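Fold this complex.
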Amino acid sequence: MVEIDFTRLLIAERDAEEKVEDAKKRAEEIIRKAQEEAEKIVKMKSTIDEEKIREEVEKTPYEELENFRKDLLKRLEEFSKVIDENRENIRRDILMRTLGVEI
Amino acid sequence: MSIEEKEILNALIREIEEAAEEEVKKILNEAKEQAKKILEEAEKRALEEKKRREDEARRRFRIDVLKKIAYKRLEYRRKYLIEKYKMIMELVEDIRRSITREAETRSDNYYRGLKNLLKEAIENIEKNDLIIVFNKRDEENIRILLKDLLKFFKEKGRNLNVTLSPDLPEGEYGVVVRSSDEKEYFVNTLSTRFKYFIDERLPLLLYIKSR
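Structure:
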């Protein structure tokens, strides 16, 4: 009959369990570090350049505003030109109608 | 312990050790795999968060800039309208001065016009008993013009009975004709006509010319 030395066997089992436990702790450490790294990644890579965005966003409306201002100036110049070129005709038209020369 | 027993024991210990190593390997691999997923997920989350922040910033800046621009647009338009108004008022004053000059110097145009104003006013009153109100300075000319006009209307079948009233205020020109019973009147003063033509005719002239 074969007799087994259970003491060595128990020691081996305990060592094995310790290794597994140690591995579990290392695994937890790996995950914890990954989570820390993940937080850093989210923080770092989600940072935005607000000034750059502001410049981008403001560029088109300010260009449109400048065009609007130029357009009004142009319209004013044209209107002034119309008045100057036709001042005499307009003046005469209203004058004659007001006086009643032209009813 | 026999050799056979030793071999059995060693085999059992190896088996336990191998199982433990396998378990350790499995645990560590799973942990590494999970860590990799966590990092990948973080990259993805970072991109989403960045996009969300950028969108939010764009929306905020757009609102800010649109507010500022709306004020600026209003300011530009207000300045534009003020300048345009000044040009128009300068023209209006120019015309007003011309009219006053014609009236005060009693030019030919003024008297030619006065006859038309008087005729138009009378034509617009149905009654034949009339009161004609005018500027005292025009009295002599009104009397001369009326001779022709009374004749003219008589030929048209209207026998007019006219009372002259030189009561138009100083600085006012043209005529006001009203029926003696005061039920009808027609204001044909230069100031009234001027206002009418500035309101009705000038925009038309400017519109046509500026097209």
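The helical segments of chain A are 6-45, 50-99.
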